[in-house]
Amino acid sequence: MRAVLECGALVFLLACSQQVRGGTWIFCCNDDSGRQACGDILPPACYGRAYRIVGDSGRTLKTVEAPLTAEQRAQREAEERRRAEQDRLANEQRRKDQALLNTYGSEKDIEIMRTRAERDIAAAIKAADERIAEIRGRRKKFEDEAEFYRNRTLPAEVAKGLRDADHEITTQELIIEGKKKEREAVRQKYDEELRRFVELSKRPPARP
Questions:
Q1: 51 Cβ contact list (under 8 Å, min separation 6)
Q2: What DSSP line would sit under 6-29, residue for residue?
Q3: Using CA atoms, how far apart are residues 115 and 153, in angstroms rounded to an integer?
Q4: What's the number of domains the chain is made of?
Q5: Is residue 34 part of a domain?
Q6: 25: exposed, middle or buried (C-beta count within 10 Å: 0-12, 13-18, 19+)?
Q7: Range scoring the smallest mean pLDDT among 3-12, 20-29, 60-69
Q8: What is the mean pLDDT of the chain?
Q9: In a domain, 94, yes or no
Q10: Phi, psi (5° rounding) for residue 50?
Q11: How far is Cα 51 from Cα 135, in angstroms, rounded to an integer?
């Protein structure tokens, strides 16, 4: 039977290893009383505890941590998820930064793109406003016809004309509302890109 040894202090590890036959490694840990338990197989006192693997010279070759509790495992997994998310965000930011530097050569380039985008949106809003004015002019004709039928049933074509005009006006108003939101989003986008571009431009170049 292989021996399981108990040694009172680290200075006796070499002596313990000499007492163990049939192997060149021993396993040691501190038991409940703080004494060292060693053996050429893992002593029962070491179950569920941190232990050391010791060579013939008495030197510790490896330290094995105690098994984690359920709470410790949950904490470690949460920390690993947190680090993984931090790495993902950092990689995503690096990708965005590189794309930004590849897209613009200067702050002026960003302002040019901002002006162009805002001009396109303003043109779309103006076109929708003009379309509403045109529809309202057409609707006025149906309104005038409807005056002849006050308190009477409107002819189908007059009622349809009024409904269609109202629907088209509502559609154009929604387009305008969407374009105004887009304009605000564009301003925020280019403000952030300009801020980030300036920040990146001030950084010292990375060392090769």
A1: 27, 28, 29, 42, 63, 64
A2: EESSGGGHHHHHHH--S-S-EEEE
A3: 52
A4: 2
A5: yes
A6: middle
A7: 3-12
A8: 86
A9: no
A10: -70, 145
A11: 85
Q: What's this model's pTM, rounded to 2 decimal places?
A: 0.60
DSSP symbols for 22-77: S-S-EEEEE-TTS-EEEESS--GGGTTS-EEEE-TTS-EEEEEPPPPPHHHHHHHH
Contact of 55 with 24, CB cutoff 8 Å: yes
User: Nearest CA to 39 among 7, 71, 64, 10?
Assistant: 7
**Shared domain check, 118 and 43:** no
- pLDDT of res. 17: 41
- Residue 13: domain span: 4-64
Please tell me whether residues 120 and 198 are part of one structural domain. yes
Mean per-residue pLDDT, 174-185? 97
DSSP, res 3: -
Burial 36-62 (b: 16+ CB within 10 A, else e): bbbbbebbebbeebebbebeeebeeee
Quick one: 119 and 47 in the same domain?
Answer: no
Residues in the chain, how many?
Answer: 208
| 143 located within any domain | yes
Rounded Cα distance between 42 and 26, Å, is 8
Confidence at 87, pLDDT banded by 50, 70, 90: very high
Would you say residue 154 lies in a domain?
A: yes
Q: Which two tokens stand for residue 86?
A: 């931090």
